[in-house]
Design goal:
- There is one protein chain.
- The protein is mainly alpha-helical.
- It has one domain.
- The chain is built from eight helices and no strands.
- α1 crosses α6.
- The radius of gyration is 18 Å and the shape is elongated.
- The two termini are about 20 Å apart.
């Protein structure tokens, strides 16, 4: 198997989870600027669609209060930035560039997914898979050869 094919799965996983992570931060940014009542109605609809085990974690009042303060908004901005980096590193990984960034993004993805809750098992699994692939000596050598070319 060629190295591009070997890294494709985990790289695409990084991209998808990174983009989903960014999308999950959008409601927090929106909440800072709109009427909380509108968002609470949308949040209740989301809660109805969520799996039963996730419903307990979806408390609109807590979420609204957390996103209205500056610390909550700053934390949301940090998560959005980390997820943008994860997606970017996944794109770089697909072309066998930025091995270090891919390692960092794989590790960060496991942390950010646990903080954002909804994609935790998937994100941790993809992060571990990505690290295993990236730490393969043949894959690392392919990244180095691409950088030297």
């Amino acid at each position: 198997m060629n190295m591009e094919g070997k890294v494709a799965g985990p790289a695409i996983g990084l991209i998808v989870i990174g983009v989903l992570g960014v999308l999950l931060t959008i409601p927090s940014f929106v909440m800072a600027f709109i009427d909380p009542a509108i968002f609470e109605q949308l949040f209740e609809r989301l809660r109805e669609l969520a799996p039963p085990e996730a419903r307990e974690q979806l408390d609109p009042e807590t979420f609204v209060a957390a996103t209205r303060d500056r610390v909550g908004l700053a934390w949301t901005a940090v998560l959005a930035g980390l997820n943008v980096f994860i997606a970017w590193a996944g794109v770089r990984m697909l072309s066998l560039k930025s091995w270090t960034a891919a390692i960092v993004a794989s590790s960060l993805m496991m942390v950010t997914c646990c903080v954002q809750c909804c994609c935790c098992p998937i994100g941790v699994g993809i992060g571990i898979w990505s690290l295993i692939v990236l730490l393969d000596p043949n894959v690392k050598q392919a990244f180095e050869a691409k950088a030297a070319a």
